[in-house]
Amino acid sequence: MNKENYKKRKPRYNLKSEFHRRCDQLVNHSIYDPKTECWNWNGSTTGKGMWRYGALNVSFDELNIQRGIRSHRLSYMIFKGDIPKGMLVLHKCDNTLCCNPEHLFLGTQNDNMLDAQKKKRLPSHQGSKNANAKITEADVLEIRKLKKAKTSIPAIQKRFNLGRSTIWHIINRTTWNHIPEDI
Question: Which of 73, 109, 120, 145 has its CA at 20 to 30 Å from residue 58's CA atom?
């Protein structure tokens, strides 16, 4: 193809007009919250509760491509740039419906889990809340109390139907360490 024909050819799709259309859609489907400065998505959503995200379809008719995208990811791409493969768009504000690019940042799945843990957004599976727990917090306190009273480990094992190493870990606080020493 020579230079003249290349300049005359019609582009397969108009990225600029698609970009402006998406910007308008983002603005028209978001409600500004002055308290939090969040741009809350008011269009279609996916998920429920704290896992609810804004959702929309992006289509390039000329290319016959249509795919779903979450509103915060679109906002990031419009205002900040591409999202590298394997990266997530995380919220500083912890509002999954927020599209404010100032509240968005990139991170890995590990970053996301550490952020959730730091902000105490993950459900607790400690102690008796763990589905595999065989004893309760009260039992742990009793085990520690019995050991302080010089009860033998085999006697404690028999009473609670637990293995020697489990009793040892409870007494030495390598497990069930979230329970304070004296309650």
Answer: 109
- Residues 38/95, Cβ–Cβ less than 8 Å: yes
CATH topology of domain 11-118: Homing Intron 3 (I-Ppo) Encoded Endonuclease; Chain A (3.90.75)
pTM (two decimals): 0.59
Domain ranges of the chain: 11-118, 127-171
Q: Contact 85/108 with Cβ under 8 angstroms?
A: no
**pLDDT above 80 for 25:** no
Kindly give, in sequence order, each residue whose CB lies less than 8 Å from that of residue 58, ignoring residues fewer than 6 positions away. Answer: 18, 22, 66, 67, 68, 69, 74
φ, ψ at 107 (rounded to 5°): -165, 165
Q: 137-148 and 164-171 helices cross at what angle (nearest 10)?
A: 80
What residues pair up with 59 in beta bridges, in sequence order? 66
Closest by CA position to 91, among listed 9, 11, 21, 75: 75
Tokens of 83: 């999202």
pLDDT tens digits along 117-137: 888 777 777 888 878 889 999
